[in-house]
Amino acid sequence: DRADLRRRVRDMEQKLQRERQDHRDLSHQYKTMQTELTNKVKKLEQEVSQLKEDLLSQEELSKEKSERKQEEQEKDVIIADLRQKLDNMSDYEKILHETLDSLSSQLSATRQGWEDESATLHQKYKELLSEFGL
């Protein structure tokens, strides 16, 4: 019976040693898995954070593009309006040049008439003065 009990005690001690070793192995595996999961969680949190920043950047870029497009359209409207005004000014410029040319021609004709009349009057008064001996 003693030998049987010793054998059973030895078997139980060996079983206890195996259980302790299994426990150590499982504890080590648990710690390794926990560390891996913690690292994975940190990595995923960083990835989520980066994706949020990217999303915000894309939204800001989209908003900026939209604003620039609107500004461009507003500037195009202003440019079209200014071109229309410039075309109108060109028409007015032509009218003004024609009017000034006409006025200049009329002034030249009137001036020539005055010069002729002035020369006639000058000659007439010169003759009158000559008659009076002056």
UniProtKB/TrEMBL annotation:
It is found in: Cytoplasm, Cytoskeleton, Flagellum axoneme. InterPro entries: DRC12-like. Residues 29-38 have a biased composition (Polar residues). Residues 1-28 have a biased composition (Basic and acidic residues). Keywords: Cell projection, Cilium, Coiled coil, Cytoplasm, Cytoskeleton, Flagellum. Residues 1-38 are annotated as: Disordered. Component of the nexin-dynein regulatory complex (N-DRC), a key regulator of ciliary/flagellar motility which maintains the alignment and integrity of the distal axoneme and regulates microtubule sliding in motile axonemes. Belongs to the DRC12 family. Component of the nexin-dynein regulatory complex (N-DRC). This is Dynein regulatory complex protein 12.
